[in-house]
Amino acid sequence: MPDAGAPAPGRVVLLTTSHRVAPGLLSWPAWQALHAADRVLCADGAHPQLPYLREAGVPVDEASPTAEELLDLCAGGRTVVVVATGEGEPRLTDGLARLAGSGRIQMPDLELLPASYDLPGARLLDLVQVMDRIRAECPWSSRQTHEGLAKYGIEEAYELVEAIEEGDRDELREELGDVLLQVVFHARIAEEGSPEDGSEPFSIDDVAGGIVTKLIHRHPHVFGDASASTPEEVKEHWLRTKAEEKRRTSVTEGIPLGQPGLALAAKLASRVRTAGLDVPLPRGEGVGYELLAAAARAEEAGVDPETALRAAARAYRDAIRATEESRRGTDEG
Predict the structure, then answer these.
(1) Structure confidence by residue, pLDDT tens digits, 29-41
(2) Cα–Cα dist 294/272, whole Å
(3) pTM score of the predicted model
(4) In 22-145, which ranges are continuous DSSP H helix?
(5) What is the 8-class DSSP label of residue 105?
(6) Distance (Å, rounded) from C-alpha 112 to C-alpha 294?
(7) Do strands 61-62 and 79-83 pair parallel, antiparallel, or not at all (unpaired)?
(8) Which 3 state secondary structure label does DSSP give 19?
(9) Residue 184 CB: number of other CB atoms within 10 A?
């Protein structure tokens, strides 16, 4: 039984911080707890928060007490704040849990106080750091080039499309990560520039900054004074601002010719229709011209011919498997 005459057990505050947030940017409750504490402890003398805590007048002792020692420090109603390391102090918390479970010790008040929180997208910083180390230390990754990685970008994009078509959300999350890896990998390579052609280096921040600027400029109905209440009006804003940016002399400029044939045909037809041009489809013999006409009709009807063909191909695949399964059943019988 706890000793009724024992001094007040005090309070232990485990202060956690995120390495993805700039050191020193702590919540107001965290600063209050730090300034009011009788002792502030941290096992890591190189913890990035320590210079900022000391600058703010908070004395921090470099110490790694056991659970028993921490209880002694709290005795008499004192408050001890433990600035957690990146691992989260599992040895200390396991020890406190063991003591609390014994039922023989009067435990101090225990509080987990997050001093800083990850913002949305914070794990992207981890990806950038991991990619930077892999590029520097991995024998394979350190030798890769934009040209050598190009095929993987295509493969990952197709695997992403397949995950979307299959409706598998776990697979979708994984494939999105694989596509994101390609972006970060290429951006990391680009940081080194190109000694061959003397091109200037750029980073993932330049990539992100460029697309942020583009999105804001192409959404004046969100970030500006323009208005749009329908998807068609949004598309009109997008096309108009895109045309102003690119200053192209032909609606065909910017259409990648390396994309699948049906998608290419539909994109050309879409550009022609959007621009209000009257361009008859070329006449010719053979399945190529038939597919071109089919793709143009699909686009006009608001159907993506590539997606439609892939859906039909999947149905064909299922029919093939059903026939194979039926044949195996007949053979076994």
Answers:
(1) 999 999 999 999 9
(2) 15
(3) 0.68
(4) 28-36, 50-55, 67-74, 90-102, 123-137
(5) S
(6) 63
(7) unpaired
(8) coil
(9) 18
